[in-house]
Amino acid sequence: MSLEFKKVRSTLVVRVSGEMDMLIADKMRAEIDKRIDDRNIKNLVLNLEKVTFMDSSGLGVVIGRYKRITAKQGRMFIVGARPQVEKILFFSGVNRLVPLYKSEQEVINI
Amino acid sequence: MNVRNYVRFEFFSIPENIAFARSCVGAFASQLDCTLEDVEEIKLVVSEAVSNCIIHGYENNPTQMITVIVSIDDHGVLEIVVEDRGRGIEDLPRAMEATYSSDPTRMGLGFTFMKSFTDDMQVDTAPGKGTTVRLRRSFLKNEEALA
Ligand SMILES: Nc1ncnc2c1ncn2[C@@H]1O[C@H](COP(=O)(O)OP(=O)(O)OP(=O)(O)O)[C@@H](O)[C@H]1O
Ligand SMILES: [Mg+2]
């Protein structure tokens, strides 16, 4: 798993690659949280284009970040989820809390 | 019912082995008449069962053993058995409820995924003895299903 970070004004973009399971959950949580706790960051875009697998531990990381971002009145978006990842985001109802978009460009345009 | 193929493996209860276990079972399932989407679902349920052994069964104690047994019978039914000899589950009906988790930071979706992406799930558990999850999923060839 690897993470790439980018800041666009008050939005943190996180590009994830690899498999989101229990092995990487703690590290991912810590790496993202230390950046979203920065008071200049309000919104979070999670780019999952390169995520090839996600289970409930991975979903837990997504929901935890959603809670943290909404606690500071920010918004969160997911972009680029592949079909197998999208399926479990829908199945768990996470898509009702965190809207899904095709690309980073699409989110930036809204 | 004849067993057509059978694999059993055992490993330390560490998170590194979750990907190993799901990849092995995914590769094993590929010999059946299944799609890539089916294989992804199989990998998901294995990941859930093995993660539960590590997190709940052994409470992250890395030196315990998890056993996985996979088999295929001559009707194209895949059976996956995941077993720990850990803490066990006190209240199984409650544990199997969607969104119930004994850990407030978790979603409580593991059993729901296991049930939803298989045809049959059986859980055998006893406090202090351990937990065995048995999952079955049928991959009948289309002609056989119609016959
Ligand atoms: N192998 C096991 N040993 C002991 N307890 C278990 C085991 N598997 C599940 N449980 C219990 O059953 C509960 C529900 O399991 P389930 O996988 O559905 O949710 P979870 O693991 O808590 O959360 P998630 O899977 O969404 O990360 C767990 O919280 C735990 O209390
Ligand atoms: Mg679980």
Please state the average pLDDT score of chain A.
Answer: 96
What is the global morphology of chain A? globular
Give me the Rg of chain A, rounded: 12 Å
The total count of helices of chain A amounts to 5
pLDDT under 50 segments of chain B (min length 5)?
none
Bound ligands, named by name, code or SMILES: adenosine-5'-triphosphate, magnesium ion
In whole angstroms, how far apart are the ends of chain A?
A: 29 Å
β-strand amount of chain A: 25-35%
CATH top level label of chain A: Alpha Beta
CATH superfamily of chain A: STAS domain
- Biggest sheet layout of chain A: 5 strands, mixed
Number of strands of chain B: 5
Largest sheet of chain B: 5 strands, antiparallel
The CATH topology annotation of chain A reads as Transcription Regulator spoIIAA
Strand order of the largest sheet of chain A: 1-2-3-4-5
SSE arrangement of chain B, N to C? EHHEEHHEEH
Task: Provide the structure class of chain A.
Answer: alpha/beta
Lateral strand order in the biggest sheet of chain B: 1-2-3-5-4
Output the CATH topology of chain B. Answer: Heat Shock Protein 90
